[in-house]
Description:
By secondary structure, this protein is an alpha/beta fold. The protein is built from six helices and seven strands; from the N terminus they run αβαβαβαβαβαββ.
Amino acid sequence: xxxxxxxxxxxxxxxxxxxxxxxxxxxxxxxxxxxxxxxxxxxxxxxxxxxxxxxxxxxxxxxxxxxxxxxxxxxxxxxxxxxxxxxxxxxxxxxxxxxxxxxxxxxxxxxxxxxxxxxxxxxxxxxxxxxxxxxxxxxxxxxxxxxxxxxxxxxxxxxxxxxxxxxxxxxxxxxxxxxxxxxxxxxxxxxxxxxxxx
Length: 198
């Protein structure tokens, strides 16, 4: 749905991340996936349709976004996918009681620099509980001054850049959309940095 006035906008980063999920569809059945900041939930919905056990989440302070998650599930015949209110940087009963996770998805969550540390605090918490999990994330380059490198170091996280051409997302049109070609989208996989001696 390409209509921002209803809060159901499919941002270019979501299309690119969904393409990555699709490219890895054979490894997804049985995987436990959490999408954060899900909104319309395109990557999470694709993961669920590919056989992953998905939980969708967005801020507990944004009920319209949680409703978008639920609506996307219903439209895609996924009525049993749980939707949780998880606010970045906040330890809540929902966060503490999450089942084990293999993959965390987040498209365009690195939008506002004031949220970067809260996002990475939450990601660190989840990866500490699930040391073998990965955070698959896409982001739009909006400013050369914005960086999460220092925060990754602070939270003992590492990132690996994933070239878009490696999963067919460097095309001018993607999923019948011309949007990804008109924006600078990057993808990375974030995981726990290994401690010395491990």
